[in-house]
Amino acid sequence: MAKHPFTKETIPVFVANDDRFTEHYEALLGIPCGSEVDETFAKNYNLSYRKVLERREEDEDLIVHSDQFSGKPRSQAKEAVTDFARQENIGGHMSSPRQFDWLISRQRYWGTPIPIIHCPKCKAVPVPHDQLPVKLPKLSSLSGKGLSPLSKISEWINVDCPKCGDKAKRETDTMDTFVDSAWYFLRFCDPNNASEPFNSDTANQMMPVDLYVGGKEHAIMHLLYARFVTHFLHSVGMLKQKEPFQRLLVQGLVMGQTFRVDSTGQYISRDQVDISGQQVTQIGSGLPVTAKWDKMSKSKHNGVDPEDTVETYGIDTTRLFMLSGIPPDHNMLWNTEAISGIVKWKNRLWTLVTELIETRQTQDIVMKKNDFKHEEKIKKERNIAVEEVTRMYSQEYMFSVAISRLQKLSNVLRKVPNSVIQNSAEFEQALCDLCIILAPMAPHFSSELWKGDRKSVV
What we know:
four-stranded mixed sheet; alpha+beta; single chain
């Protein structure tokens, strides 16, 4: 039996395996006078119930036989009930359908100890503040079997109850690491504080976090609980800000190509596939194979080690390749055949610097009247590139757009005659700016370009 939170009357509890229950709901309160399903259930089990709803054809239904809520229209009664629940501290608050009970405990050694002491007389008692933090004892070995290893450390688990002084035991479960990651950004604000998690004044000066970058799993789970912790800390006066993050950037996934045998459903690796014909087939058996892009997984044989690409093309080329294809919040299809475009662009940039050095070491070339129009175009494109790429770096985080804009600027520089290359300060400025702006995405390559640029300063 359960106790009704308002009337304190006992009500029966039934455990059922029924597909009509909404997913993730652990309990359902039956109202037979308001639901045919509940009414049928009550009749089947001979349950008596009180009519609390009076149906009215033209007007809104009325609440009856419900103490202070009787006589109210259904919509008004709903507000009154939630207000009463809040006053009695038994509910009435808004909740998210995505936020469920969060089990924070784990039966393992590695984790933050839960600062609770269990006493036969006083039940669960918090560890006194002057005994915090509770530290893990050192272990000689971990078996990985049975109960928590902490339950076997008698000198650690057996303590006196802080309340009554009788023999008691520590909590042996530890917190899941999700608990720590739900507030680590606050600790970053005050990492050397030995007396409290963080100083409120210090955290209030630095919070909220400007940008939160995470994958889809983080956006659903970690972000939800990080916000939960911050909302709690705000409610107890430790933080001014309710929300921990000003902006969210959800990263896309790097997708690998999978090959699945149609008849068996087996995933096979790329070297077991024949793609020379119109139909992709399995080598040896000739069975049809479906090729698609999917999240990288060992079981699907579509994982890629980026070290191989780095070893072949270098870290800067690999980084530019990953940034250039798509916005960061989209999934990326890992296809190194497309890396050739980045390699060609880098070669063109190298050629630009080489031409600048060589042209300025040759005999003087006089600029003609028509050459000055190139300077005007260079100046315009340089200003646009600096403004747009800066915005992409600091506000939009669209690095693929930044690369496209730099490629456009480099194309403008490639089309000018040697007389402009040799004499124009605008050309030199634009090429220098290009090297500087490229540096966050390709620091090593940009450094080499800059070294060549500085040799040719007018």
